[in-house]
Amino acid sequence: MHIGPHTFSGRFFLAPLAGVSDRPFRAICREMGAAFAYTEMVSAHGLIHGTSQTLAYLDRDPDEVPFAVQIFAAEPEVLARGAAAAVGAGAGIVDINMACPVRKVCGTGAGAALAREPSAVEAAVREVVRAAGVPVTVKIRAGWDDGSVNCVEVARAAEAGGASAVALHGRTRAQGYSGLADWSLIRAVKEAVSIPVLGSGDVWSAADALRMRRETGCDAVLVARGACGNPWIFRDLKASEAGREMPGAPTRDEWVGTVLRHVELQIAHRTRQRDGETRTAAEGHAVRELRKHLLWYTRGLKGGVHFRRDATVADTAAGVEALLERHFPPGAPFAFDPSLAAREAIAE
Ligand SMILES: Cc1cc2nc3c(=O)[nH]c(=O)nc-3n(C[C@H](O)[C@H](O)[C@H](O)COP(=O)(O)O)c2cc1C
Predict the structure, then answer these.
(1) Whose CA is nearest to atom 22 of ligand 1?
(2) Site to substitute for ligand 1 among 177, 198, 211, most atoms within 8 A of C-beta
(3) Is the pTM of this model over 0.90?
(4) From the CB of residue 211, how many other CB atoms can be counted at a distance below 10 Å?
(5) What is the 3-state secondary structure (H, E, C) of 119-137?
(6) Per-residue pLDDT reduced to its tens digit, 246-304
(7) DSSP labels, 220-234
(8) What pLDDT sits at residue 344?
(9) Ligand 1 atom closest to 169 (CA)
(10) Which DSSP string corresponds to 232-248?
(11) CA–CA separation, 67 and 253 (whole Å)
């Protein structure tokens, strides 16, 4: 699987996820076997002005190559300048968000609103490709609403503008994150363009991801909510790609180890962002930032309700570890159900 000159070792990627696909979570998913991972959407305006939040979005592991930054803005020239700034900060692939359904974003003409008019898509992609000098990918939705499903035209326009790949989330903007993604549209886009197509929508398990590939012919699958609380989905997919038996749900010790590693990575991430913040303050912030992940990791687990109640006041790594030991003690029955982990990962 290739995007421009970049070759990937597998076909299962972590999707761009606002508030989720930061450096720590990308690292966890890549360690599990994700072949590639996008940053969350980053404002092109923020990239141009170098805001501190933007710098946090650009934090990456040195071995994250290519580094893929997703950008959003309404105006092609702003996207182009933002793309150039992202490349200056190390991006080897720039993705343009034409999929975000949020009113605040669409109201400015960015996100899904950008894809309402295919000719505007082509022009915007062309300008970004020229400014970036690295492969540009585009993430789109099925269309604005049921009455304007235009993903095939938009994907063709992106290709004509010079995009190196197109990712399709098979829901309309009007659907948001509800209802079902229409995978037949992923197939239709795959048949309409010759650049790689990445499929997205309703991938809750490794079996779903494999089925999406089979049913749509997409070149790669973006795992989104299905990875929240269940990065082991990538371990299964990696095993499947290698022709090995899928290891399935983690043991209690593997699970605890991953949760604690995530806590450590989050603290390190926060510490790098906040010059001058004490270690204690950085740790407290990081653990609070991680609460949504702790919720997802413990969904459906015996002991999870009590853990989550106590986790609302935890603000140190040692505190989280103590809660894990108390509520999920070694030797006690442990039945992690991957299908439950992500079900509460709702959008913004
Ligand atoms: C919490 C959350 C944040 C998201 N943030 C982004 C984003 O920043 N950029 C983007 O292109 N898509 C974003 N998405 C959409 C996902 O990448 C994906 O296309 C969508 O969730 C459909 O896949 P799923 O049904 O398997 O979750 C987000 C989705 C969720 C749930």
Answers:
(1) 201
(2) 177
(3) yes
(4) 15
(5) HHHHHHHHHHHHHHCCCEE
(6) 999 999 999 999 999 999 999 999 999 877 788 899 999 999 999 999 999 999 899 99
(7) EEEE-GGGTT-THHH
(8) 58
(9) 19
(10) HHHHHHHHHHTTPPP--
(11) 31
Q: Give per-residue pLDDT as tens, 131-182.
A: 999 999 999 999 999 999 999 999 999 999 999 999 999 999 999 999 999 9
Q: How far is residue 218's CA from residue 211's CA, in Å, rounded to a whole number? A: 10
* Nearest Cα to Cα of residue 240 among 223, 256, 228: 223
Helix or strand holding residue 267 (H, E):
helix 252-273
**Domains of the chain from N-terminus onward:** 7-241 (3.20.20.70), 252-340 (no CATH)
Q: Ligand 1 — pocket residues by CB below 6 A? A: 15-18, 20, 40-41, 70, 97, 99-100, 139, 169, 177, 181, 200-203, 222, 224-226, 345, 347
Q: What is the distance between the alpha carbons of residues 259 and 253, in angstroms, rounded to a whole number?
A: 10
Which residue has the CA at smallest separation from atom 28 of ligand 1? 17
Tokens (6 digits) for 318: 């040692």
Nearest atom in ligand 1 to the alpha carbon of residue 342 is 27
Q: What interhelical angle do 317-327 and 252-273 show, nearest 10?
A: 160
Ligand 1: which of 12, 13, 17 to mutate, most ligand atoms within 8 Å of CB? 17
Q: What's the whole-number mean pLDDT along residues 185-203?
A: 98
Instruction: Output the pLDDT for position 341.
Output: 67
| Ligand 1 atom closest to 171 (CA) | 22
What the block records as the tokens of 89 is 């900060």
Tokens of 327: 């509520």
Give the model's pLDDT for residue 204.
Answer: 95
Does the annotation mark 228 as catalytic? no
Q: Answer whether 129's CB lies under 8 Å from 87's CB.
A: no
